[in-house]
Design a protein that fits this description.
The chain is mainly β. Helix content is 9%, strand content 37%. The protein has 3 domains: 119 residues, Sandwich (Immunoglobulin-like); 185 residues, Cupredoxins -  blue copper proteins (Immunoglobulin-like), CATH 2.60.40; 192 residues, Cupredoxins -  blue copper proteins (Immunoglobulin-like, Sandwich), CATH 2.60.40.420. Belongs to the multicopper oxidase family.
Length: 575
C-alpha cells in the first residue's frame, strides 16, 4: 500500500472510530424531536402549567430495537435548565449523551438545543427517559421500548399487545419550589398529593374519577405490561385484582420467569410482566390495578395514598358500574420480608443466548455505607428544621455528601484538567467504621466534597452497599449510570466479609441498573468497568440525591481505539 493511500486509510479508520457508534447491520437510525415546553394540565381539580415534552404528560414513547441508533434533538423552550437522561441505556463510549447535569454535560439553557445520539447495545425490554437536573423529572419522563433484533423472538410467549404502565407522582405545588424550600430550611420536603398511572391519579383521589387509566383486555389473551417507576421519592407495590403476573424482564434484561401477585418496583426500575386475561365465559367483573408505597423511613415522610387504574374486559355485558368490583390485596407499607423475598426470586435467564457474564474475581473491591446524616445549620447560632433545631438533613455514601460542581465532570476528565472541579480520592471504605445497623454514632455530621473513584478500563469491580441506622434504617434504590451490574448477594444487618462472599450467587444473579439497598441490610453488586467515561451513581429517591447521596466513577480509557471515550460533540452545551 502506497504511503498516500496508507494515510487515507488511517484517516478514514480514525474518523470511523470518532463517530458516534453506528447502528449494527440490519439496524436503523430512529429520529425524535423533544420540544420541552409548558403545558396546562389539570389533576385533582388543580390546573397548572407543567414542563412537558411536546405538550404530552407523560412524554412520548421511544420505540427502538436492539442495535438501533437513536437520535433525539432536545429543544429547551422553558425558563429552567434541562437535561434528558436515557435511564439504563449503556451509552458505550458515548457518555456525552448520558444526561445528568454537571456530570456528563452542562444543562441545556433556555432557547438552546442539544442532539443526543446513542446506540442500543445488548439490551432489550423496557427502560425510560427523564430529566436529570434538580426535580424536573417530576413531569418530564416517558417510556423507552426496546424490541429484540428483527427476527429474534422473546424468550417467552409472544403477547397479544404490550402496554407501558408508568408510575409517577403529582404535586399540586411546583416541585422546584418544594425542594428549594426544603434545602433552604434544612427540613424534609413536602410529599406529593397523588400517585399516577400513565399520568392519571384514578378514582380513589378527590375529583379524579374521570382521570383514570383503563386497560381494556380481551378474554384469553396475554398482555405484556411494561412497568416503570418514574416516581420521585417512593418505592411502590403493584397488583392487579384476581390476576397473576409473570415477571419476565427487569431493567431491560431477561430473567427466569416467575409468578407473583404483587410486584415491588423502586424509582428507576422497570419490570416487564405477562398478564393472562381470564378465559371466555368467566363472570363479568371490573378489576382494580393498585399501587401504593413501600416505605421504610420515618412516618410522615412519604405520600401514603393509593393510585388505582381499571382493568376491564372487552364486550362485557352490563354497565361497568353494575359489575362486581375486585380490589387486590397489597402488603403493608413497611413489609421488608416481602421485599427481601421478591428480590430473592429475581435470577438472570443465564442461557447460551443470554448469558450472565458475572465477574468471578474482583480487581477493585469497595464497601460503601449509604444513608442519612446531618450538617450544621449555617451561620453558627441559626436554627433550621432538620432532625434537631441546630442541624439540617443530609445524605451520604461513606459519609461523603457529594457537592455538585459548576462544570461537567466528564469535560474536566476528558481535558485532563480536574483541578478545582473534582478530586480522585473517594474513600473505598468508611473512614470511621461503626456498627452500621446498630446504635448510631453520636456525631452524625457528614463531610462534603466533589470526590470520584477512579477505575482502570475493564477492571472487575465489586461494591457492597450497606444501609445505616443513622436517622433510621431505610431502603435506598441505588442507580448506576453507564453499566448494568449483577446483584450477587444481599442480606440483613451488617455485611460480614468473612462469611457472606461464600454465599454469593455467581451463576445466575439478576442483572440490573438500579437495586434497592435493603433497609437495615446490605447488597453486593459486581460489574466490569468496560465503558470509559464519568458515570454517576446515586440514590433514585430524589430527596436523597438532593441531600448528597451520590458519587461518580471515572473509568479510564483502554489501550485500543475502540476502548476510548469518543470526543465531545460540537453542540455540547456550555455552562
Amino acid at each position: 500500500m502506497g504511503a498516500h493511500r496508507l494515510v487515507l486509510f488511517l484517516h478514514g479508520t480514525l474518523l470511523l472510530l470518532l463517530l458516534p457508534q453506528l447502528p449494527l447491520a440490519g439496524a436503523v437510525t430512529r429520529y425524535y424531536t423533544f420540544n420541552v415546553k409548558l403545558q396546562n394540565v389539570t389533576r385533582l381539580c388543580n390546573t397548572k402549567a407543567i414542563p412537558t415534552v411536546n405538550g404530552k404528560f407523560p412524554g412520548p414513547k421511544i420505540v427502538t430495537r436492539e442495535g438501533d441508533r437513536v437520535v433525539v434533538k432536545v429543544v429547551n423552550r422553558i425558563q429552567h435548565n434541562i437535561t434528558i437522561h436515557w435511564h439504563g441505556v449503556r451509552q458505550m463510549r458515548t457518555g456525552w449523551y448520558d444526561g445528568p447535569a454537571y456530570v456528563t454535560q452542562c444543562p441545556i439553557q433556555t432557547g438552546q438545543r442539544y442532539v443526543y445520539n446513542f446506540t442500543i447495545t445488548g439490551q432489550r425490554g423496557t427502560l425510560f427517559w427523564h430529566a436529570h437536573v434538580s426535580w424536573m423529572r417530576a413531569t418530564l419522563y416517558g417510556p423507552i421500548v426496546i424490541l429484540p433484533k428483527l427476527g429474534v423472538p422473546m424468550p417467552f410467549p409472544k403477547p397479544h399487545k404490550d402496554v407501558p404502565i408508568i408510575f409517577g407522582e403529582w404535586f399540586n405545588a411546583d416541585p422546584e419550589a418544594i425542594i428549594a424550600q426544603a434545602l433552604q430550611t434544612g427540613g424534609g420536603p413536602n410529599v406529593s398529593d397523588a400517585y399516577t398511572i400513565n399520568g392519571l391519579p384514578g378514582p380513589l383521589y378527590n375529583c379524579s374519577s374521570q382521570d383514570t387509566f383503563r386497560l381494556k383486555v380481551r378474554a384469553g389473551e396475554t398482555y405484556l405490561l411494561r412497568l416503570i417507576n418514574a416516581a420521585l421519592n417512593d418505592e411502590l407495590f403493584f397488583s392487579v385484582a384476581n390476576h397473576t403476573l409473570t415477571v419476565v424482564d427487569v431493567d431491560a434484561a431477561y430473567v427466569k420467569p416467575f409468578d407473583t401477585d404483587v410486584v415491588l418496583i423502586t424509582p428507576g426500575q422497570t419490570t416487564n410482566v405477562l398478564l393472562r386475561a381470564k378465559e371466555p365465559g368467566c363472570p363479568p367483573a371490573t378489576h382494580l390495578m393498585l399501587a401504593r408505597p413501600y416505605a421504610t423511613g420515618r412516618p410522615g415522610t412519604y405520600d401514603n395514598t393509593t393510585v388505582a387504574a381499571i382493568l376491564e374486559y372487552d364486550a362485557q355485558p352490563g354497565k361497568i358500574k353494575s359489575l362486581p368490583l375486585f380490589r387486590p390485596s397489597l402488603p403493608v407499607f413497611n413489609d421488608t420480608a416481602f421485599a427481601a423475598d421478591f428480590a430473592a426470586k429475581l435470577r438472570s435467564l443465564g442461557t447460551q443466548e443470554y448469558p450472565a457474564n458475572v465477574p468471578r474475581r474482583v480487581d477493585n473491591p469497595f464497601f460503601f455505607t449509604v444513608g442519612l446524616g446531618t450538617t450544621p445549620c449555617p451561620g453558627g447560632n441559626q436554627t433550621c428544621q432538620g432532625p434537631t433545631n441546630t442541624t439540617r438533613f443530609a445524605a451520604s455514601m461513606n459519609n461523603m455528601s457529594f457537592d455538585m460542581p459548576t462544570t461537567a465532570l466528564l469535560t474536566a476528565h476528558y481535558m485532563g484538567d480536574s483541578g478545582g472541579v473534582y478530586t480522585a480520592d473517594f474513600p473505598a471504605t468508611p473512614l470511621e467504621p461503626f456498627n452500621y445497623t446498630g446504635t448510631p454514632p453520636n456525631n452524625t455530621n457528614v463531610s462534603n466534597g466533589t470526590r470520584v473513584a477512579v477505575l482502570p478500563y475493564n477492571a472487575s469491580v465489586e461494591v457492597v452497599l450497606q444501609d445505616t441506622s443513622i436517622l433510621g434504617a431505610e431502603s435506598h434504590p441505588l442507580h448506576l449510570h453507564g453499566f448494568d451490574f449483577f446483584v450477587v448477594g444481599q442480606g440483613n444487618g451488617n455485611y460480614d466479609p468473612d462469611k457472606h462472599p461464600a454465599e454469593f450467587n455467581l451463576v445466575d444473579p439478576v442483572q440490573r441498573n438500579t437495586v434497592g439497598v435493603p433497609a437495615g441490610g446490605w447488597v453486593a453488586i459486581r460489574f466490569f468497568a468496560d465503558n470509559p467515561g464519568v458515570w454517576f451513581m446515586h440514590c433514585h429517591l430524589e430527596v436523597h440525591t438532593s441531600w448528597g447521596l451520590k458519587m461518580a466513577w471515572v473509568v479510564n480509557d483502554g489501550p485500543l481505539p475502540e476502548q476510548k471515550l469518543m470526543p465531545p460533540p460540537s453542540d455540547l452545551p456550555k455552562c
